[in-house]
Amino acid sequence: MAREGPPVHEYEAQLLTQSFQFNGRLETVGNPLDFLNDPTRDALILRQAYIAPLTPGGPIRGLARPQVSVRRQEVLFLYYAGSEAREAIRLLARREPLIAYTPLAVLRGTFHLPAEALLGDFLASTTGSFLPITHAQLFFLQRLPSPFPSECELLMVGRQYIQLYHPV
Questions:
Q1: Residues 6 or more apart from 106 whose CB is under 8 A from it?
Q2: Which of these, 73, 74, 72, 63, lies nearest to 24 by C-alpha position?
Q3: Are the CB atoms for 12 and 46 separated by under 8 Å?
Q4: Which of 8, 23, 58, 64 is 20 to 30 A off residue 50, Cα-Cα?
Q5: What's the pTM?
Q6: What does the DSSP assignment read for 16-80?
Q7: CA atoms within 13 Å, Cβ hemisphere of 44
Q8: How confident is the model at residue 2 (pLDDT cuts 50, 70, 90)?
Q9: CA 6 to CA 16: how far, in whole Å?
Q10: What three-state secondary structure class fits 144?
């Protein structure tokens, strides 16, 4: 009898790094948040990808590729365009409205924290690379090459890029 592993899915997604904007279909295995936070995973595979540099007027223009690998640690923001992936993500019950500052944007939203986490240092008590933020509002510090939602029901944020935060 053949062993079955977790299901493989492809979800429409947008990713932002400090240098590039990506649009395409993100391949995940099993639960999307567990997959993103898997410490053994170095890269995320994006199929039918369109890549655009954030630096305007540079020598590199946007380009399309059938598949690209984006280093997980480079991703600042990840937005799942379809509701299927967002609905599969389990959120922690404790919710705190916060404003966070990143290199690309100021973010206002509801952060989901472990019950025992102190608000002043909750990032130290979270183990995943990505934090799910609900009711997110993004205020970009620069113009992006293509549209990225400024309001998101659910946004994944690279924890390492949160420079500072405070209650709303």
A1: 99, 100, 138, 139, 141
A2: 63
A3: no
A4: 8
A5: 0.92
A6: E-SSEEEEEEEEEESSHHHHHT-TT--EEEEEEEEEEESSTT-S---EEEEEEEEEGGG-SEEEE
A7: 35
A8: low
A9: 27
A10: coil
Q: In terms of Cα–Cα distance, which of 83, 67, 77 is closest to 133?
A: 77
pLDDT tens digit sequence for 32-77: 999 999 999 999 999 999 999 998 777 778 899 999 999 999 999 9
DSSP per-residue codes, 76-139: SEEEESSHHHHHH----SEEEEEEEE-SSEEEEEEEEE-TT--GGGHHHH--SSEEEEEEEEEE
Residue 3 has pLDDT above 70, yes or no: no
Q: What's the confidence (pLDDT) of residue 38?
A: 94
Query: What's the whole-number average pLDDT of the chain?
Result: 93
b/e for 14-26, b at 16 or more Cβ within 10 A? bbbbeebbbbbbb
Owner of token pair 């989901």 = 112
Residue-range domains of the chain with CATH? 8-85 (2.30.30.100), 90-167 (2.30.30)
Amino acid at 109: G
User: So what's the pLDDT on residue 70?
Assistant: 98
Tokens of 15: 């990713």
CA gap 87, 66 in Å, rounded: 27
